[in-house]
Amino acid sequence: MSTFIPLNELERTLSLAMSGRLSQAALMEAFLASDVVVLLDQPPMNDGQLGLAQPLAYRMTDGNIGVAIFTSIDRVVNDDIEYVHALQTKFLWILSIITDGVGIVVNPGQSHGFELPPNGVAMLKTDAALG
Question: pTM (2 decimals)?
């Protein structure tokens, strides 16, 4: 496996957290203040809303579905030709539209990523005053 080289401030924070040098709470604060990338099955509407577009999702290790979120466009790994529309947006906005019972998969399949189960997403929404 190749060495992870952070490409932006969020990835530097992720790297620190994964090495144990930064708390999970500090990592979540960094995500709440950052831009991320999601893949969609069709382009978003002109006003930036998803409309009918659906984000790429993965089955998480706990069996739940998680929306795939990438920390950089360069981290996007996608073998599904349906999801070719990349949208860079605020993590906070993505968090606000995730429905109950859905988790998050950050950088799926990569060394510097993680899963946030649905209850973690709900707690993060509460902490961010979104739900």
Answer: 0.91
